[in-house]
Design goal:
The protein is mainly β.
Length: 828
């Protein structure tokens, strides 16, 4: 595993009024008494030192906190008092800042004259906080992510009076199993405890220790997330449910909507963030269950080379490289390149596939306050289309879980590429401008006989000769401004943004011709491909413009308010054509306001209580019409949520949430004319979530989540009110825990245990059959020594038979039996 951790040094507290003049013992101003970084720094030593890549001064009540972003663990600093300044000197560290060779900020808040961070010879970094009546006294409030120092008003300490200063180092310089910050919920770097909405971060250490090569595997450790099938077949891509609702366009990559009909790789992902509940204020149209944001790996300032390879018990194999480092000597130009190839086999007969991923990114620090990321991604996917086992009148038919009922020539394939950039410019410490642009194109091909009808007496399964192809193009751009200011003594952090999306879709379909049936009890495969003769065509253009405003307000040091609103307008122009017929045209324009409110109260320092109201909207498909040929209104979602977030210990945190979601304007058959639909339907989801994550003891980490969910039809004309939503479990529990020996001859040896429980679920909206509950156990054994690592993972240790999801028609997806995978890696 590469060194990707973030060391955080927090200075926080109450500061007395101070003048601006600051003198070191030399008689010079402190900024002049420290030599600039970069002078006489030995390059070999610099490569071994931890690099501090960012410095941020953030208001904290009437004081501040100083955050140092680093690419590894920070050593324990030595401290001293120099005149009116408290000085902390960090060993084995170098300063590599986009804005220059040092950092200075004068008068960040009333009572502070100067904050200074500079580099010294011999791989040392000096941090200085200056007062007037005397240096601030410091006590320790250690956090899992690094150093935490509380600053109290200057007490007029004499130089050398170090007994008032107590310094401590905790953790390994990263957040481990309990990340503390996220940018997904607010698009600003905000501590999770200050966000009035449920959000879970699945960090890289969990992804890697589970050997989760696909997003679906990683999301098994997320509360309220369930599988919804649709692999390779759904026009919305990988099928996930959040709080009972489909994601349907709710997967993002660094905040930009990411579409893919195939499974998503985690090989170039740093972490996965799941924001639960409506998110239209920042992310536009979408479902009310929430969104999934993939945070990609970033370029590093020092050379980093990682090579890994893996195999499993079904003959799958893969290999990947992760390369990063500076392009220029001053590290203002850096790169990262992830390459991977996977060739996978399955426990399912005749099912296999492969995936190629090429993911480069270059970061250019254009100036002290300006940086540019240029990135791309190319993926090539191919896998056998597999609809799983079949459902009869009395439920799932008892068949061997490896039985395949398609044809081995049937496959999903897709070539996809993204190209984009992100530009950041800091006008000053109070105003930041951002601009992003991305172009995405993918060309999926789905060609396979699909289930049509079943004769349970004979076992004959009718099949359709299905084909879907075409080209999809998506353009995205937005511009944002983040401003920080005070109204009196109340700090604000305001986000204003404008977003534009343009989507072009040109799909074609074939679905009317029959293919040879197959007997489910004694399958005989024909192996004969059929002709591709598309019969239905679409040509669609969808344009969306969104304007959003958000304000984060610290009413009091322990009382925070989040308020936001977004206005969207969406234009759809769609055409449809049956072969041999004239083309039909449809146009539709929808607009909507989406508000959001939330409040966070901290009765005591380690505990946050919150309440929020959030909304979503989703335009209806533009080619659908009412009986009077009028357009359908957008679906609207709203959520009420209350919860608590807190620290049980310095390294172990919990989250708790209670919520109620309603999705309204759902289309349901018209009771007066079943050939048409009316928007009188409503579905509801309400539940309870409890999450626990972090370090219990040195080397012992865990992430655990429990969800109790009541997702049901609350209004409908044909489906009985109270019916359960398909594929949504009432109860869901996941745990992943690892323990690594910290010392001795076996230091680096570790063990992992995973427990996953999913209760029974309705197989379709009619509730005519159910998917049974299951309890799965996973385990791992790993060893790390120097730059080598090896791990062995076992999924489904006790070979439990279970089903992950249903397609709500005839197909159900069986879970894999006992699977053993092995992986080795080396870091240079």
């Amino acid at each position: 595993m590469g060194v990707r951790s973030r060391g955080l040094l927090w200075f926080a507290g109450w500061l007395a009024l101070m003048p601006m003049a600051v003198q070191a013992e030399t008689g010079l101003p402190l900024a002049e008494a420290v030599p600039p970084s970069g002078q006489a720094v030995d390059l070999e030593m610099a490569q071994a030192a931890t690099q501090i890549t960012g410095v941020r001064v953030e208001p904290d009540g009437q004081g501040i906190r100083l955050v140092l972003d680093a690419d590894g663990a920070l050593g324990e600093p030595t401290t001293s008092v120099v005149g009116s300044a408290l000085v902390a000197e960090i060993p084995n560290a170098v300063l590599v800042l986009p804005e220059g060779e040092s950092f200075e900020q004068f008068g960040p808040v009333e009572g502070i004259a100067l904050v200074s961070v500079t580099g010294l010879e011999g791989n040392r970094v000096r941090v200085s906080i200056t007062g007037s009546d005397g240096p601030p006294a410091v006590n320790v409030n250690a956090g899992a992510a690094g150093l935490v120092l509380g600053i109290v008003p200057g007490l007029g300490l004499a130089a050398g009076d170090d007994e008032a200063i107590r310094i401590g180092v905790t953790g390994a310089g990263d957040d481990g199993f309990a990340p503390r910050d996220s940018s997904t919920a607010t698009r600003t770097d905000t501590p999770l405890r200050d966000i009035p909405q449920s959000i879970q971060v699945i960090p890289q250490v969990v992804i890697e220790s589970r050997d989760a090569r696909e997003l679906g595997n990683a999301l098994e450790n997320a509360a309220s997330v369930a599988s919804n099938g649709g692999r390779g077949l759904s026009v919305f891509g990988p099928g996930f449910l959040i709080r009972g609702f489909e994601t349907r366009g709710g997967i993002f990559r660094d905040g930009v909507q990411a579409f893919s009909l195939g499974a998503l790789s985690t090989n170039d992902i740093e972490r996965v963030e799941v924001l639960r509940g409506p998110a239209s204020v920042l992310f536009g149209q979408g479902e009310p269950g929430g969104i999934i944001n993939l945070v990609t790996k970033r370029p590093l300032s020092e050379p980093f080379y990682d090579v890994s390879a893996g195999v499993d018990s079904f003959g799958s194999y893969d290999g990947g490289v992760d390369l990063s480092g500076p392009i220029t000597a001053d590290s203002t130009l850096r790169y990262r390149l992830n390459l991977s190839y996977e060739n996978f086999n399955s426990f399912r007969n005749l099912v296999d596939g492969n995936r190629l991923l090429i993911s480069p990114i270059i970061t250019w620090d254009i100036g002290p306050s300006t940086s540019l990321d240029v990135y791309g991604q190319y993926t090539s996917d191919r896998e056998t289309i597999d609809e799983g086992l079949v459902v009869g009148a009395n439920g799932i038919i008892d068949l061997p879980r490896d039985r395949f009922l398609g044809e081995d020539f049937g496959e999903f394939s897709q070539d996809q590429f993204n190209l984009g950039y992100r530009l950041n410019h800091e006008i000053d410490e109070n105003l930041t401008l951002r601009h992003a642009l991305q172009y995405q194109q993918y060309s999926p091909r789905r060609y396979a006989p699909l289930f049509d009808s079943l004769d349970e007496t004979t076992g004959e399964l009718g099949r359709l000769a299905y084909f879907a192809g075409g080209t999809y193009q998506r353009f995205f751009t937005n511009a944002e401004a983040v401003g920080r200011f005070n109204t009196g003594s109340i700090p604000h952090q305001v986000l204003f943004g404008v977003e534009y999306r343009n989507t072009l879709e040109q799909p074609e379909f074939q679905f009317s011709n029959l293919y040879d049936p197959i007997n489910i009890f004694n399958p005989v495969y024909t192996g004969i491909p059929y002709a591709i003769e598309p019969e239905f065509f679409r040509d669609d253009t969808i344009r969306t413009l969104g304007i959003y405003l958000q304000d984060q307000i610290d009413i009091l040091p322990n009382l925070k308010l989040l308020a936001g609103v977004r206005y969207d307008t969406t234009d759809q122009f769609r055409t449809t054509q049956d072969i041999g017929q004239s083309r039909a045209e449809f146009s539709q324009t929808d607009s909507a306001f989406s508000p959001r409110f939330g409040i966070v109260y901290e009765p005591i320092e380690p505990l946050s209580l919150y309440a929020s109201y959030t909304t979503s909207f989703q335009p209806a498909f533009g080619a659908s019409r009412n009986a009077d040929d009028s357009n359908f209104d957008p679906e609207r979602g709203r959520q009420f949520e209350i919860g608590a977030k807190g620290d049980i210990t310095e390294n172990l945190s919990f989250t708790l949430a209670l919520f109620d979601i309603r999705r309204q304007n759902v289309q349901t058959p018209d009771p007066n004319d079943p050939l048409f639909t009316v928007q009188t339907g409503e579905v509801a989801s309400r539940g309870f979530e409890l999450g626990l994550g972090g370090e219990i003891l040195p080397g012992w980490n865990l992430t655990a989540n429990y969800t109790a969910l009541d997702a049901f039809v609350s209004q409908d004309n044909t489906i009985p009110v109270g019916n359960r939503l398909a594929n949504v479990p009432d109860n869901q529990f996941s745990l992943w825990s690892t323990y690594e020996l910290q010392e001795g001859s076996l230091e680096g040896l570790g063990f992992g245990l995973g427990l996953y429980y999913v209760s029974q679920r309705a197989g379709n909206s009619d509730n005519s059959f159910t998917l049974p509950s299951y309890f799965r156990t996973d385990a791992s054994l790993f060893y790390r020594r120097n730059n080598w690592r090896a791990q062995l993972n076992v999924e489904n240790l006790f070979n439990t038979q279970y089903f992950t999801s249903s397609d709500q028609f005839l197909g159900v997806t069986p879970g894999a039996p006992l699977t053993v995978s092995a992986r080795v890696g080396v870091e240079f």
